[in-house]
């Protein structure tokens, strides 16, 4: 059974304000919830309509009806499992190899795709400026396809972080040096900018190198989407490592 | 003034069935409508709240109020201009350089992003299997950011097309040969598959080469999103040309 206070908590957790206040977030789906559990995220509460949670030993699962799950879920078609989790605590960021830093990325689908890309390319740490969209937003979580369990995501003051950073900082710009022919070290920080405005001036001034993806089509073409650009930069970094 | 029959037509054009029947589609926004006009798309009807249509000589623009535009528009915040256009007629497909072919891509955002990528990388022709999402869908048009004006998109029977194709066919697969080290000719067909199922068996059998993007993270990671994978493949093709 779902008690009223739990229903209210889960509804409230759709808002960033409450997620920050409570230090909790909601993940839906047996596979994604199972992956969080396996990667060490601590569950606050788990609900299931009978769906098995793969690969994990859970004692505290509340069995609920589909009708109850529909009340809790933010999905049109909830799929059997909903978990409330503690957010990952802040950790010290070590630059071991390459990391990615985002300067004000706003679209949940873009952030989710970038997390999935970090996972694919073995990028362990993703730094988000404080004004980047919240990675515990349900649309971001859906787009990550479970990758959030395998990438360490930290929100912080990006200016302070880059000032203190020891690895070289590579900012991505429309008119940056051609990434195909740039020299790339075996560690560094790759900074991706906001969808509309790119990298802000203050962050741009902290970049040691400015790199870009050459354009082969007509000059009237818009810039690349930030998630597809991240895909190309990470591929360039990894193909040479 | 907007007459009733026009209002009905524009509402109906939100459905693929009517777009096919009438051979028309709707584009919104001054910039995007201007780009279509400049690239030779023929307008059936243009509406404006007074917004200027950049870089084009239009005689037949119907001036309407914002209230009327809101009735016509599928956007929450319509932005001044709405055009009804004739779809691009079917054309013969020449393989001059590389082209991209899609086998059942379903997500409008993915198709829009892929069109934008083709534009960026100078891919002139995009072939879509008949079961690929309609490129004149409003969500696709929005995601292309105007690139639809510069890429020749043709829907056809992909099996027949590939059978008749003279250029080598490169299919993209999770377990394909590493694209970083594959030999790539200076022309060919790059085939991208459906979001959930990848390339269908029948199309897979028509591929001369199977290529893939190497994974650097943990093996439990999901495949890459089809749009980000297309970004990486096109970058690989172009960086070596």
Automatic annotation (TrEMBL), chains A, B:
Keywords: Methyltransferase, Transferase
InterPro entries for this protein: Alpha/beta_knot_MTases (IPR029028), MRM3-like_sub_bind (IPR053888), Ribosomal_eL30-like_sf (IPR029064), rRNA_Methyltransferase (IPR051259), SpoU_MeTrfase (IPR001537), tRNA_m1G_MTases_N (IPR029026)
GO terms classed as biological process: methylation; RNA processing
GO molecular function, one term: RNA binding
Entry-linked Pfam families: MRM3-like_sub_bind, SpoU_methylase
CDD domains per the UniProt record, alphabetical: SpoU-like_RNA-MTase
Stretches that traverse the bilayer: none
Coiled-coil zones: none
Residues in MRM3-like substrate binding domain copies: 6-83
Annotated tRNA/rRNA methyltransferase SpoU type domain residues: 99-234
Keyword S-adenosyl-L-methionine (UniProt): no
Family the entry assigns: Belongs to the class IV-like SAM-binding methyltransferase superfamily. RNA methyltransferase TrmH family.
Name of the protein this chain belongs to: RNA methyltransferase
Species, as recorded: Maribacter cobaltidurans
